[in-house]
Prior knowledge:
With 121 residues, the protein is mainly α.
Amino acid sequence: MSWTFDGGRPLYTQLVEQLKAKIVSGEYPPGQRIPPVRELAAEAGVNPNTLQRAFSELEREGLLHAERTSGRFVTEDVSLVEYLRGEMARELADQYLDQTRQLGYSNEQAVELIRRRSEET
């Protein structure tokens, strides 16, 4: 997953969202060590202090934990990761339904659009 940012929201918030996506997608599986702050900051093209702030937020949420001499690791709490994955998917579904309603579609029509599109891909 590449790093993409928009100028309309705080950078650390976007880092938190993208790191969560990497965790729930399995790019960073439960128990895996996360690259060091400086390395990841260089990869993302951001200030290490900004990335450190994002890491602190993820630690507060229980998705990462630090081990003094070993670095940071993804939680081994698979149920937390699965819960977050479901929440993120629900948010995407809500956004999709809101946008299709604005176009004049009913929920049933919106679901049918997804069904047909999934068959095409």
